[in-house]
Specification:
Length: 203
Amino acid sequence: MSIEINAVKRDVKGTGASRRLRHAGTVPGVVYGDGKDAIALEINYKELFLQFRHETFHASVLSLIIDGKKESVLLRDFQMHPVRNTIQHIDFQRVSATEKIHVKVPLHFINADVAVGVKLSGGIVAHILTEADVSCLAKDLPEFIEVDVATLEMGHSIHLSQIKLPKGVTFVQLAHENDAAVASIAKTRGGVAATAAEETPEA
């Protein structure tokens, strides 16, 4: 199911205008790419934030509706307020149905509780990467990539080349001969809490 964002064209620009928009409950933004002119936008803050807080919003092809016309876009950049943690500005890039896109997709780890190195050696699964850059057509973009760690043993790692990808999707790093490690089984440190308590000076 595609995520839809409603927007209207923004006629006024500049720092002062953007500040007034935010006070009025809207977020300034822009959409660009695919050989078309960039368009300044304004988007209702509450509607945007409801979508923005979900993981899929950051790694999916979105439907941007501008004055009733729909375009396929990706979230490319955003600025947050340093104190209030509110969205200050947002950038979207149009995507073509025939050209491959590069997008960072989240990694979802499964079977961590039954991994060989956890059950037999008492280790824990250490996540080295939580997302990976993929290349694919917009229609093939997965919301996430599943990483099964069930067979992972103590001291071993899972690399990008060992992960099963959906059809039409490739890891960008592998194309550059970088077979990065994604997860490993690490030893647990016994008595961490007790040691920390002992080292804490008395008030």
